[in-house]
Amino acid sequence: MAAAAAAAAAVGGPQPPQAEMPAPGLALDKAATAAHLKAALSRPDNRAGAEELQALLERVLSAERPLAAAADGEEAAAAGGGGGPGAAEEEALEWCKCLLAGGGGYDEFCAAVRAYDPAALCGLVWTANFVAYRCRTCGISPCMSLCAECFHQGDHTGHDFNMFRSQAGGACDCGDSNVMRESGFCKRHQIKSSSNIPCVPKDLLMMSEFVLPRFIFCLIQYLREGYNEPAADVPSEKDLNKVLQLLEPQISFLEDLTKMGGAMRSVLTQVLTNQQSYKDLTSGLGENAYARKSHEKYLIALKSSGLTYPEDKLVYGIQEPSAGTSTLAVQGFAGATGTLGQLDSSDEEDQDGSQGLGKRKRVKLSSNTKDQSIMDVLKHKSFLEELLFWTVKYEFPQKMVTFLLNMLPDQEYKVAFTKTFVQHYAFIMKTLKKSHESDTMSNRIVHISVQLFSNEELARQVTEECQLLDIMVTVLLYMMESCLIKSELQDEENSLHVVVNCGEALLKNNTYWPLVSDFINILSHQSVAKRFLEDHGLLVTWMNFVSFFQGMNLNKRELNEHVEFESQTYYAAFAAELEACAQPMWGLLSHCKVRETQEYTRNVVRYCLEALQDWFDAINFVDEPAPNQVTFHLPLHRYYAMFLSKAVKCQELDLDSVLPDQEMLMKLMIHPLQIQASLAEIHSNMWVRNGLQIKGQAMTYVQSHFCNSMIDPDIYLLQVCASRLDPDYFISSVFERFKVVDLLTMASQHQNTVLDAEHERSMLEGALTFLVILLSLRLHLGMSDDEILRAEMVAQLCMNDRTHSSLLDLIPENPNPKSGIIPGSYSFESVLSAVADFKAPVFEPGGSMQQGMYTPKAEVWDHEFDPVMVILRTVYRRDVQSAMDRYTAFLKQSGKFPGNPWPPYKKRTPLHPSYKGLMRLLHCKTLHIVLFTLLYKILMDHQNLSEHVLCMVLYLIELGLENSAEEESDEEASVGGPERCHDSWFPGSNLVSNMRHFINYVRVRVPETAPEVKRDSPASTSSDSLGSLQNSGTAQVFSLVAERRKKFQEIINRSSSEANQVVRPKTSNKWSAPGSAPQLTTAILEIKESILSLLIKLHHKLSGKQNSYYPPWLDDIEILIQPEIPKYSHGDGITAVERILLKAALQSRMNKRIIEEICRKVTPPVPPKKITAAEKKTLDKEERRQKARERQQKLLAEFASRQKSFMETAMDVDSPESDIPMEITTAEPQVSEAVYDCVICGQSGPSSEDRPTGLVVLLQASSVLGQCRDNIEPKKLPITEEEQIYPWDTCAAVHDVRLSLLQRYFKDSSCLLAVSIGWEGGVYVQTCGHTLHIDCHKSYMESLRNDQVLQGFSVDKGEFTCPLCRQFANSVLPCYPGSNVENNLWQRPSNKSIQDLIKEVEELQGRPGAFPSETNLSKEMESVMKDIKNTTQKKYRDYSKTPGSPDNDFLFMYSVARTNLELELIHRGGNLCSGGASTAGKRSCLNQLFHVLALHMRLYSIDSEYNPWRKLTQLLEEMNSQLGNEEQQSEVPILYHDVTSLLLIQILMMPQPLRKDHFTCIVKVLFTLLYTQGLVALSVKCSEEDRSAWKHTGALKKNTCDAEKSYEVLLSFVIRELSKGKLYHEEGTQECATISPVAWSPESTEKYLQDFCLPFLRITSLLQHHLFGEDLPSCQEEEEFSVLSSCLGLLPTFYQTEHPFISASCLDWPVPAFDIISQWCFEINSFTERHAEQGKALLIQESRWKLPHLLQLPENYNTIFQYYHRKTCSVCTKVPKDPAVCLVCGTFVCLKGLCCKQQSYCECVLHSQNCGAGTGIFLLINASVIIIIRGHRFCLWGSVYLDAHGEEDRDLRRGKPLYICKERYKVLEQQWISHTFDHINKRWGPHYNGL
Q1: Which residues are 133's β-sheet partners?
Q2: pLDDT, tens only, 319-337
Q3: For residue 555, what are the β-bridge partners?
Q4: From residue 945, how far is each of 759, 761, 805, 1343, 1503 by CA, in Å?
Q5: Residue 1060 class from Cβ within 10 Å (0-12 exposed, 13-18 middle, 19+ buried)?
Q6: What is the dihedral sign for C-alpha 991, 993, 996, 1002?
């Protein structure tokens, strides 16, 4: 209550006197007061205490400060007396806490109450976006969910579970055995027996019982006070939110109370549900004016809570609001006036109402009068009820929802709350409908309702006691009623049917889903569903509701203009049918599985048929559907179909007992058939003017989530109708609907009144395909569930290989999750393993990543590939083609059939006996005539027929033979009585006998122009038993339409004359007799063929040979006995014909004889054209292709010759090809100039000063080198708080420390020459190896700049893709004119002594390098240098203390060379053992890069005084002078220099091209320094004893001949020299123990020295390889040192390799070793005089870096996810919305988080610059995906975590457990190290610094 008062205070306003603070004494000592009151109340006679407490509460918790003042906040606050607004509020809460605790401390009180928590339920409540788990193995209800903690503490190994992000919020069900199985409970909630929880002491919660009612009442008063009925349209959301903010502390206080556990919850339950205290406090009587006012506000708010709505005008009373409208409103709306009981619609009401809106016959709800409560104003009896009421009014504030849900573990509360919720249900939905935040509100509603209705026991109870079902159905009707419009289907003017308007917000925004989802939820409980199915009134109302969707979203075909605006309402329509109609239907069906439930089915079917009948009446439907209209929504038909199917399949009902009469069946089939025909029209592009959305509808209708609620029931219903109606009638209806009747004529020309010629073929194909599907689909006609699953799976796998998840998604399953085929259930997995093989995820060379896929097994292709199923299930037509292509490939590969196969014929599962009638379609004359006609037309090559038509015709014939009636065994009985003959085409209806029936003459109607007219009419006799022409036998024109009319009339012989009148006029006006069209004339054709003879001729035609068919049984009589011959199962048309003829012969001896006869006759020549239309098409294609190829070659040849002539004139040289071989053969050492091809202009030539050529390069800053560590143990990604990653041991950190140490003590310019930089942010240069003229490149860039197409790169930053290979690049590196590789002349070994060479080197370095004259080349060199500098950030270039000093540039330039060499070394695996040419081969650009760098380096001459070269090669006399100038900082001692850096400086300071012997000389000199450094480092590392021992042994050998090449001598000398200084002094004893646990043996010393020198040798060898083009030798790892040193010329050639190799033998001292060493040591000593520690640290260099690696990731993704997704960001301390972690260094960052943004850079981008110099690799925690940032672009790389089926789970949508895929991670690391992200990943986009 405290909170309440506080809020009031906050609202301010002059406080009324009662609200003054309690007397000061009281205020000071709340605790004492509380203790006193508690004592008073504990006495047996506690009236006095109670009164005192009430008075205190009155005072403290008075809500009497006008909340209205909240609107004008500031003044109010200012006016608030006392200690300011917040104070009073705090005060009140404090009081409450004190009183509850009864004088003790509040925290202790909380702890005490918690001890008595008996709750065995978890009940943790969460809000949207929380990560929870669902385990289908443990769940009883499909909505079951667990919090992460309970899930991980329970045992779910091997279960079918997944992690999910909660959309609407939820609560943990752990411990609730109504919702989940007990085996899944976690350790904490495994049932506790209540006995071991002690009883709650009475006095502990005594105060709560007194205080809480006042507190809650106070809260309610605030809520009343704060609410103002919104004005007419403006909802006062802002005001509501203000009130809620003020009440935040109070509600939080209540929420905290709920968390104290069961004891406190039961007190709260008592308070909330106690009707007496509610009455006492809120009656609004009494003297308190304030209370009265608050009560009045409450009553006003209640007024609008009923469903009766005077305020909303009905939408559809659009014509003048006639009297009828209002009554109807009342009536359709189930009793606004409360006349629910007497709702029988009397006639006069009907008459009235029908003007206003469709006549609603029976809208009756259950006629119990008590139901009226649904409509009425609410009445509240307890705090709980009023609290919920305000919760609804305030549109479900999150805090309130959480409080109400937190109470649910209390069973008593749960029941009370559920009843209250149901009581308010109508009001909730009404509020939702008006709400503007309907999305949020929907989520919050479902958050509550799913907790209540998932529990079967509870749902059953409220269904029985509170009419839950009635309420829901009524409210649903009420919701939809507001958006009805008149249906335009069929009869636009007089239609009385109303449908929902899909454009309304209610449907478009799916506002109805909370209601529907609750409804589906409660129907999943058997007890509830049974009540529904037994209650006739409810069923009637429900069918009524469903009929609102019948025929919605009507499409009218546009015939003239294209529609201007494509409406997208179809989304809403499909969603509505699926959610509001189909899902409840599946829910009900799941309870109709056994015989005992027959009654339910009968009920549903009965009311469904009634509703359908009403619908037909309302739309005025007789027998013809209106043309050019289609609706895809027929939920009533589908309800009917699905319940029929269930009845036959599961309940053993007799089908005929639930079927209506023939007339109704005829009506029922019309609309589903219309949809099938429209599908064909849409695919034939006849609806193209309606825009793309109509294609969208056709696709959605068959799409996997919809097909089993839409197309499947439609086809099933048509199958049922076909099995019961006259087959001739049905077949003719089909062809009429598909508009191809006119095409089915023997004549070669015809006129089609309803179809354009270009659509005829595809419509005919559509009609035949539909018939094939109709006759061969067995989904509802006898297949078991497992067979269905298998067929679906095979169809999907045949179209394409599929991942496991896409298969789950594509296989339609009943949307109701209890249906049995649950994804992941055993049947799915077992069927999958039976039909498919798993292909593990692999990598293709391009680097594109595959997912784990399933592909059909060979035997599936062989026996189970079913084209019919594939056609039925394809959303895109191309998938059918794809399935056929895969089938063809399989047959070729397995050698079964080489050519282009036809779709195979697949045997079907037997029909269920109830549907046997379906096969009559195959044995009706109408179909036979159509088949005969089509075969004839195909044979005669009439237009508009295709191979597909033939294929389907043969398929139908074969189906007929497979399903022929048994009784036709006896041949002779084939001729029936005379009544069969009137029809002249075929004698009977059995296909087997009709096949052999010869047809001689046919009379056809043809246009007068047709060729047939000119022929003479044949003689007036006809052979065979057909009788003479006078009998008009032959001459009958077969008109499908007339047939259909006739049958229709026969069926409907209505006595009432008016019915006939209805039919007749239509017949006459629309389908005029064919003769009436004047231009048609009659001709008689001589045919003389039977189906058999046509087939045999067709065989000849297809094979292109005369007499190609020979009956196989003449050779091998066995064939007739065992018909299943594998030879016939796959093949093309020829095979199909052979198979059919064989089956025909098998079925009857007569047919066999006739086939033999036909084959004996010499076949008359086939009409001259021997090529079928289809073949002709393919031939045409071939010819066209051939011609195109020839044209192309001609063009290319012409182009090449033109180019050649252009080059000859332009360059005026002989063609270069002929030159080159000449040069090589010439004897004198002439240097060949390198020739480059420009990939833009195509010319070849050398690079010259004025027209330089350049290499296409990509410059990128890289910190990969800096990530090397000296530790083999890979770093792991931290997954607990303890694990942290410290970057101290990385290469970059070590180098940084070293440089700053040097800069502290030595001269800056000297320091900058002693090290290399570029470990972080070094510039790496790579090329694709293509070259172009620099001027061509400039114009290429210009054209890119003007190109408006959006590229993935930014041209302004100089980025482009190589014109040839499309590799990403951003600069061009000029090629230095000159030889390929400086060979010949420069490589000849000279015999100069090393001393001479040293002098030459010094002289050459001394010459200042002037920049060459201003040529194009030099300009380009300058510009590329600028590019290189700009590639990396300033902080990675400037290390000098004086910014911008030239030393900086100098350091940067040679470091670029170093970076590229070091990286190449890493790409080779860190050593050169593999040898060979550069891995990148021609792709290396180091040579060109060296030229550019050298050119620039030579601009800075090093003062010869400071040139380290002199210190290395000369002895300086004035050694002591150095010590004098202590005050100025000295130079860096030479032993502290980094030798590799010195090498690069020396080489780049030389004029290019460099001579080989100079190079070797420099290497030799530097090696001496390196070796000495190794010795010094060794001496520092070893212990005092080791040192003295070495000092001694070495001194003995000092005078031997090769003392300078013995490491012992040198080492002892170094130790002796350095002992003069203080270097070794500082060492304590303990330290040596840590450094050297091992004693140094000669072997270990030698190994140490070799390892110390190897990195330098590797880099030097690489450099030599690039500068002089020498190949690198390959070797074993052990011998790498000796091989490299001999390759570099360090080893004397005569060196013997027998005895073990000693590194010292490579030394070649330019001056006496001991002198120069002592000179070097002297510098060290003079430094260590002052700084011994640092001196020592600088000497120990770590040179052995391991290869860089990304962090090691844990096996299971969940470990990463659980730690990071809740982790707070270290910068902003919030939990980021999109957390990410850097895989290079493990830093945790907020992706896209504005919280951590710095100067417009978001954190990931910033980190990528700091950590990877612009390259960042981040794992997105919530998506399991890796994202790469490269400079200003980014791309999604993919995931390295895959599930058990080898699939990624981006965004963790499926939430299955994920495991690391090592191969993928390796690929990622490889791309990082080799800097190839830009080349391999294709989809880059700019990130605008927003990541």
Answers
A1: 146, 163
A2: 333 333 333 333 333 333 3
A3: 630
A4: 11, 6, 41, 51, 93
A5: middle
A6: negative
